[in-house]
Backbone:
């Protein structure tokens, strides 16, 4: 039974588009969650500079760079926003490539957000339970969606027409077949 279900999902462009658009929505949510988590960590750890010294500036800069990186990756997920820019300058995020680069970036962001939790100044006692769980949830969500994007890039592309998963998601009216 699973074989027939997998064959139906992998063979139907309409079903693939629905799945890929759900994953897009979840990607946007996970990137926004990681931005909020990194921002909260940036604010919560900025007042802890008295015993760390000047080297805390680099930790704060790293959190700010993760926020900017997640924002730029978020722009790749928004439909028709800066499409030409990404095609020219970041081709691995353009509409002609799959989701492997997005998955790798989500792994990086998720691991980076989760790495905050093992530092002494950002443990559950110093952050507070709610902030700690928010950071934990953002990291886990990014890691799960990284795996989902990599899997979708392989399974949900249209091999017959030579379309990547991102093209299947974007060109629904041009390439839609009957379910």
Residues:
């Amino acid at each position: 039974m699973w074989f027939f279900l997998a064959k139906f999902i992998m063979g139907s462009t309409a079903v693939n588009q629905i799945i890929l658009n759900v994953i897009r929505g979840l990607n946007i949510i996970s990137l926004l969650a990681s931005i909020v988590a990194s921002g909260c960590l940036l604010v919560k750890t900025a007042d802890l500079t008295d015993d760390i010294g000047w080297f805390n500036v680099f930790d704060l800069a790293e959190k700010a760079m993760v926020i900017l990186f997640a924002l730029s990756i978020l722009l790749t997920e928004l439909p028709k926003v800066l499409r030409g820019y990404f095609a020219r300058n970041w081709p691995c995020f353009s509409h002609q490539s799959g989701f492997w680069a997005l998955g790798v970036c989500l792994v990086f962001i998720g691991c980076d957000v989760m790495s905050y939790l093992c530092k002494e100044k950002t443990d559950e006692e110093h952050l507070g339970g709610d902030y700690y769980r928010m950071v934990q949830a953002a990291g886990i969500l990014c890691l799960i969606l990284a795996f989902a994007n990599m899997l979708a890039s392989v399974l949900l592309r249209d091999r017959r027409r030579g379309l990547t998963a991102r093209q299947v998601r974007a060109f629904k009216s041009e390439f839609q077949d009957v379910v």
Confidence is low (pLDDT under 50) at residues 1-5, 173-179.
